[in-house]
Amino acid sequence: MADQGALALHRAAYDGDLQALQTALRKKDCDVDARDKHGHTALMLAVYRQHEAVAEALLAAGAEIDTKTKDGWPVLCEAIGIGNTPILSRLLDAQVQHDLSETKAKSEEFLQVLAARPDFQLRMHWDVHSWVPLVSKMLPQDEVTLYKRGSELRLDTHLAISPSGIGRGDMTIIIRNDGRDGLMLYHLNHEKRGYYRKQVFDVGHMTPEKRDMMLEDLQTTEQVDVSIDVDHAVCTRALSGIYGFRTERQETIGEYECDVYDLTQVGVVSKHRAEHLTPELRAWRKALIARMKAAHAAGRPAHEGRRNSKCSADGDDVSPEDVPSDSADSDVDEDASAPLDQVARTNHNGDDEEEYPDPPLSSLPRHEAPAITFDEYQASADPPYLGRPFTTKDKRKNHRATLWMHQGFPLTIEHLVTLLEAVAPTDPMIHSMTTFLQQRLPPGFPVKLDIPVFPTVSARVTFHHFEERAIEAELFAIPKDYRLMGVRAVASSTA
């Protein structure tokens, strides 16, 4: 239970009493992110009760924007459901500033790791599989190669991954410091002989136009949260031999002697909520996605005329392959989940375009806060939900993983994660691996490991052929005959 100082802060936030709030904030021991007996911070209460000035004062006092409710949703998501645009806009500004400070730190750490390590080459073998037999037969393997040279990084892969599935491709990602432009990521598509150019570790400059577009996307898109949960995982040493004569299992992977561990109850958890979407918008989305998938299956480029000049909430462009499908590994609700930026297409090939109708952008009215006093709220054993009522569609798929841990591998987990996080926003497989590697693992480096990718899809990754050597400069040059297909900005998700 919160102390008396926190109680005064929560009461002021709940009641919208700005003067009382400022008095509470001036106290030395004031914890602006303290939680009340129901797990709410003062910022959450101000958002639920729609007190704009109080929410602004709490953010100015350093209230944490990423703090989540007991149900696991950030306060920004709660504001989306309530429908108070001024508060949502202010929270969005705070989220962008928070992401900006984080990405600056990541950029500095990335460059420090590159500077500290000798040049090297590392190969990763990916064996993608599924517990669904038919799906498993169709999933590919890949040999991914990572090169580090000075302050440059290159990753070669042949897996093309999107929510519609996993296929083959021929791609290279190059990260290099381009002087005044900072760290830039070049995504080369060797089949199309073209590339996209992105700024890494940057959320971009927030303009009024961009804020409006981001707000529109947030208010017209289902909220989805996907995470890897190892809090309930059980890690044990794998055993070999027959009953009564069993010993701890060890195996040699390449040149590395490894201790083998079993990890059970590793969960891929997805949560969906869409209480802020109108029935008209849900129906429009369902029809739109069906048409987009039909256009993609027929090989036609997709385009939606009204929004073709707009960027998405994260500033990224999306290809038709990103449209969710009915495949076994898709975990997206077709009624509401695809953001409007997925219909903002740019046709780079000059082909005939598929036109789509404008979306119905009318929104639900602002949610009215329930008529309950702070004392009633505080005294209740199980208080009513203060936001717009909603029902989540939660899914959890537990995976079993095996880890082959080697003591003394020439690359640490921390260094590998720092390097791959620069690539992770462009590759769901790399993102899954970096997320998994940041969990609590047994001692050593996982020379071989199983990671969950989608609820029904896992990958077995084997690290091999690590070699410290001089890396050729030509590997980091963009071929002169490759055309620029677009300029994008990499940004963090706000949900």
Description of the structure:
The chain is of the alpha+beta class. Helix content is 28%, strand content 28%. The protein has helices spanning 4-15, 18-25, 42-49, 52-60, 75-82, 85-116, 133-138, 208-219, 279-297, 374-379, 413-420, 428-437; strands at 120-130, 141-149, 152-162, 165-177, 183-189, 194-199, 223-229, 234-237, 239-240, 247-248, 250-253, 256-273, 393-406, 445-454, 457-468, 483-489. The strands form 2 sheets. Strands 1, 2, 3, 4, 5, 6, 7, 8, 11, 12, 13, 14, 15 and 16 form a 14-stranded mixed sheet that branches. Helix 1 runs antiparallel to helix 2, helix 1 (4-15) packs parallel to helix 3 and helix 11 (413-420) runs antiparallel to helix 12 (428-437). The radius of gyration is 25 Å and the shape is globular.
Task: Label this structure with key terms.
alpha+beta; two-stranded antiparallel sheet; 495 residues; 14-stranded mixed β-sheet; disordered C terminus; 28% helix; Serine Threonine Protein Phosphatase 5, Tetratricopeptide repeat
